[in-house]
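We now fix the convention by which a protein and its fold are recorded. The integers have meaning only within a learned vocabulary of local backbone shapes. The record below shows the convention in full.
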Amino acid sequence: MRCLAFVILAVALAACEGETRPYPYVLRISHETYDDYSCALLQTSGAFHLEFAHGGDVRVHEGTTNLEDVKKIQRILERPELSELSQRQIEEPIFSGRTEKLQLTTYRSDRWQDLFFQSIESEERFKESLDPLVEWLDGLRKLPHKELSEDEGKQNCLPPRKIVLKKREAVSFPDAVAPNPLGIKSALKLPPLVAATPAIPSATPLLRVLSVVVGGSDARQFCALIADNGRFRYENHLQKASKPVHSELFAGHLSLDELSRLRSLLDTPELANIQHHEPRGTAAVPVMGNLLNLSIARPDGVQNIVLSSGYGREFGTVYGGDGDIRSAAKLLEFLNHRLPEEKDGKLDNSARNECTALP
């Protein structure tokens, strides 16, 4: 299935015990558009495995490209804009104009590097390097090859067997690629909290918020993490149509009066009595409208609820959340007016962590 193409390679490392041959793989690449899907696995020898699909038609090719092509691909992969890039630096839009997904997985002497672009917009900054890689992938089907049946050859462009590096400790494979952190469906699941570093005193989370509002020509996403001692992190992302995302990050501390006000808003029956209901199967979230995920510390555990402006108007498999977003109107008003204040410290965008930890 296509979703398997976005699971990062379950590949081990490079040469068999007792051998000195170089690591045999250069790149795994997959590219998906609205109409087509293709992936390829390239070896240092030039041998390639290619799979591509259009509609229900799946083709599997195996062949060899020339060594000049291999060197060209290696030179592109060594460009600093790719070799020094991390997944966190890839900025995904809140909403995207056209469906496209591109994944590159390569081995960097001592680690796996996996880069996942989930939109045309996130690829834009790196077009000079990404476009030649996609063109190379598209051109593979024109090279001399042998064709395998789908049952015989389809393997999602994963290496056919396990390979082990000589005299190296075992290295963990990359984790599966996380969903788009700025995507609409991500509001259904808050990313997990990370442990505080020893230099930062730990604090118990009181409230975590993830809000997504998509209009006809703009969109906004913000998250907040507020501890029971008043410390907080706030990340706000705005996007105009056809424009990049503009982000602002703040850290601060609520006063005792503000913390008391927040607790009273969280304890209103309109919020406290809502119970969470999981969406059915692969239920879709209403795209045009507001979506709010609240994770609230209660005496008997954490209350996690999803509120939506589509609540009560569900049809088919559409998921409308656990309640009407208007139940949190006063809470949202408090958060929107209090958190992004100039008296609090503004953080650099490099500190962004999707509100998984306090600053």
Notes: The two ends are 40 Å apart (CA to CA).
